[in-house]
Design goal:
Layout lengths: L1 H8 L25 H12 L2 E6 L2 E6 L2 H9 L11 H7 L12 H14 L1 H4 L3 H17 L4 H18 L9 H16 L2 H9 L15 H28 L7 H9 L6 H35 L1 H15 L14 H13 L9 E2 L4 E3 L2 E3 L4 E4 L1 H5 L28 H6 L10 H18 L19 E3 L3 E3 L4
Parallel strand pairs: 2-6
Antiparallel strand pairs: 1-2, 3-6, 4-5, 7-8
Helix pairs in contact: 4-10, 5-13, 7-8, 7-18, 8-13, 9-11, 11-13, 13-15, 13-18
Bound molecules: protoporphyrin IX containing FE.
Length: about 475
């Protein structure tokens, strides 16, 4: 039936791709933990633009930056939609910006982010980021073995401060505990697999309890409860702070003040709550994972670490901490940042963009309602552009005389494309820089040692989902 429908819908052919089974399409042929590996394999067989079907959806896998830009940036009105929005809504995450279809509601979210997170405003958050970096240093000095917890708290504290105006001073902070737990539940359960399952069998959610559902109903109610807590708890705090006139500056307070005595219309208030929750979910794990990967890279490459420390010493001098004023004089720190996000891109397959209307690209039909998946991993591990791509080598971003190369595009590839590009990218990039520069100025990273002084070699294991996180404790 599908073949017939396909033929009837157009005389143009779809891009080449693997043969799929009826109904299931290619879903079973994709490595569920590391889909990018399957997509890269397909590139070798079918080229840079591959057609497949996942959970009944037309899906285009893009393995080249040029095609990604041609489609998502040159024709943004056709490639900024979301296809599985209904299933995301059933799961309870449909109001997160990344899942909202191309609509006025989504545009309102983007306007709210733009007011607080655009490049020229982000510089005003540098003092907060440096203050959090100092706290990170103190926490690491006290309990270095808990480094992951400290990096996570650093990432979360920055968002809670800048978006919500909330100062997290301890890892036992009650609001941090709520949003942290909520984030965990949402991130672990909002995988493409669960969304696909809800999409294929939405009736499962309404089925009587005795029908086995593989735990879907339980998952959905846990995600919904977490979303509710994450959305409301920070606003209870802010409302109180506004009433007590103790609220400091933040994205939320700025927007409240903009509306002044008129008060926020309900529609803006709802969008603000959702956008703030979205910023926390989208911004915390991604920043944390990037920093975790940085620590791992430093443990593996003491030579790089030493060179960066020498550069820091020569620019800042011993006993001082770097600030953003020193950034231009510290190209190796930026090269390490770029290489960290290239080496292990935190979101290896971007977020899927939906196709609004049938389109034609290089003679191929791109069907309406298709998902476009960009294989960021493959683009950043392309041997022609990054020789020996699995090696961590920051020098690929430096000229022979030690200045940064013009290849800052990696930033953009890692943060997505077109109208859907990550609105938190300037903030994220500065948060990661502040942490990397301050950590290298203060610590040596090396493998843990046992009682006899022998290195405890631990192969890391990553948790692969929408984003890549360290899974030692998962
Ligand atoms: C290293 C850190 C980060 C990385 C690697 C990252 C990466 C990404 C990527 C790849 C996308 C999908 C873009 C697309 O669909 O083309 C995205 C979307 C998004 N990011 Fe980030 N991000 C990071 C940090 C942040 C931060 C700090 C915030 C907020 C404060 C944030 C907020 C968002 C939001 C709201 C979206 C959805 C945008 C939309 O669909 O319109 N991200 N991010």
């Amino acid at each position: 039936l599908w073949q017939r429908q396909r033929r009837a819908s157009s005389t143009l052919s779809l891009p080449p791709g693997p043969f799929g089974l009826p109904f299931l399409g290619n879903s079973l042929g994709i490595n569920a933990r590391k889909p990018q590996l399957t997509f890269s394999e397909w590139r070798r067989h079918y080229g840079d633009l591959v057609y497949c079907r996942v959970w009944g959806y037309h899906t285009l896998v893009v393995n080249s930056e040029k095609i990604a830009r041609d489609l998502l940036e040159t024709r943004p009105s056709n490639y900024s939609d979301k296809v599985q929005a209904e299933s995301a809504t059933l799961l309870g995450i449909g109001k997160l910006t990344g899942f909202i279809p191309y609509s006025d509601e989504w545009r309102l979210h983007r306007r709210l982010y733009h007011q607080a997170l655009r490049q020229d405003i982000v510089a005003s958050y540098h003092p907060t980021q440096l203050q959090m970096a100092k706290r990170l240093i103190t926490a690491l000095m006290d309990t270095p073995a808990e480094f992951e917890c400290h990096l996570e708290m650093y990432s979360a504290s920055i968002i809670l401060s800048i978006v919500h105006g909330y100062d997290v001073t301890s890892k036992h902070d009650p609001l941090l505990a709520i949003v942290h737990h909520g984030n965990d539940v949402v991130m672990k359960n909002s995988t493409p697999l669960i969304i696909g399952l809800i999409d294929a069998f939405p009736w499962l959610l309404k089925a009587p309890k005795w029908i086995p559902d593989g735990g879907v109903k339980e998952t959905v109610s846990a995600v919904r409860a977490s979303m509710r807590d994450m959305r409301e708890a920070p606003f209870d705090y802010i409302s109180q702070a506004l009433e007590d006139k103790t609220a400091g500056r933040s994205m939320i307070v700025d927007i409240y003040q903009k509306w002044g005595d008129k008060g926020l219309p309900d529609i803006v208030l709802a969008a603000l709550k959702d956008a703030a929750t979205g910023a926390f979910i989208a911004g915390t794990d991604t920043t944390f994972s990037t920093l975790n990967n940085f620590v791992y890279a430093m443990v593996l490459h003491p030579d790089v670490q030493k060179r960066a420390q020498l550069q820091l010493d020569s620019v800042i001098g011993n006993g001082q901490l770097p600030t953003f004023d020193n950034r231009d004089e510290l190209p190796l720190i930026d090269a390490i940042l770029r290489e960290t996000i290239r080496w292990i891109p935190t979101i290896p397959n971007n977020l899927a963009h939906g196709v609004y209307n049938d389109d034609v690209y290089e003679g191929y039909l791109i069907p309406k309602g298709a998902n476009i998946i960009v294989n960021t991993w493959e683009i950043l591990h392309d041997k022609d552009r990054y020789p020996n791509p699995d090696r961590f080598a920051p020098d690929r971003f430096l000229t022979p005389d030690g200045r940064l190369t013009g290849d800052s595009m990696t930033h953009m590839v890692v943060f997505g494309y077109g109208r859907r590009v990550c609105p938190g990218r300037h903030l994220a990039e500065a948060s990661v820089w502040a942490a990397i520069a301050n950590l290298l100025a203060t610590f040596d990273f090396e493998e843990a040692k046992d009682a006899e002084g022998r290195s405890i070699v631990q192969d890391p294991e990553w948790m692969w989902g929408v984003s890549v996180t360290d899974a030692r404790d998962a």
